[in-house]
Fold:
Amino acid sequence: MPITANDPSRKSWLEVNKDSDFPIQNIPFGVFLTKDDVVTIGTRIGDFAIDLGALQQLNYFEGIELTDDMFMQDTLNDFISDGKKTWRLVRNRIAEIFDANNSELRDNEKHREIVIFNIEDVEMQLPVLIGDYTDFYSSREHATNVGKMFRDPENALLPNWLHIPVGYHGRSSTIIPSGIPVHRPMGQTLPNGETTPVFGPSRLVDFELETAFITTDANIMGENIPVHEAEDYIFGMVLLNDWSARDIQKWEYVPLGPFLAKNFASSISPWIVTLDALEPFRAKGPKQDPMPLPYLQEKGKKTFDIHLEVLLQPENGEQNLISKSNFKYMYWSMSQQLAHHASNGCRINSGDMMGSGTISGSTPDSFGSILELTWGGKNPLKLSDGTERKFINDGDTVIMRGYCEKDEVRIGFGEVCNKLLPPFTRK
Structure:
């Protein structure tokens, strides 16, 4: 089935700024709360949020097999469970409805009032009920940098790293959408030179520049997923800030890996950009040497050219661009991550989220964490207000943005933006 929604020449009758992340070729999916306190599934074109529940009630999806309440729910899980054919049919239909040459909705003022909202008049929600969350560690540059800082610089990568997409199981209970503040975590750390740990607020709070993909129901328990089929089970992608407490992490991660240093907060952008929308921006990833085992071998363009940036904004200050990276730097692809995840028969469900791991490039300005940008605090970042940062201060806001651009079409993710607050205090 062709992806007619991606036609680069298509224009919308809704006004879209040239530099918008959300032209009619994007059509992401999300969940929002309206001014009338109604939660609905929607999409976005330009600065307009579109109520897909209202569109369905008004029969604009006639001919597409959907349950009666498909878009009148508070999560996308059921829609994602319907599979790739339904996702494509719906995206193609939305593109037709909002095409500049289609007058059906454009000229029906009564319907437009029910369906279309200004983006500032809605409140974005978490788009899926995330049952399980796995975070990978798939940037060779990031893994090498961390290995140099924490272990032997001559053997920065552990022996398994070039053979498997390394990952760990995270917590879905503290995954939040953009806009929700994050509290500095409390935890156990071992001060330098001491032999007894202390409990208190983390002093080394960091961000991690990541993306994440959302899956559909992919297998039954015991069944694996062939790497060449894995993309069929990936609905789309979001930006992910996987907050980290480096001092807590350093003390706790041996022998079982990340725990409380990671699960206090993970922030995602609220609009899920489908793999169909990203199709024109495919790219080849890094050469893999040694060759992965057969179940992980793949050919062709299996990654995407997604420009990424991180900005740090002090309280009452200006935004400072501190990192520019790209998703195509990732050593292990999403298909390889998903195939490996299910290779032991682990069940993958609708709404599961898989984090990419920190996305770092090869140059210091492309590193995806403050740990790397300041090299463990040895080289503080200088901000425009004259202050310095070794790690993130209370009151700082971390902003991540991502977009693809080709042939005058820009497909973006919007942003994930969250402020760091002091530790939570019980009243």
Remarks:
- The two ends are 56 Å apart (CA to CA).
- The first strand starts at residue 30 and ends at 33.
- The chain is about 15% helix and 25% strand.
- The chain has a mean pLDDT of 97.
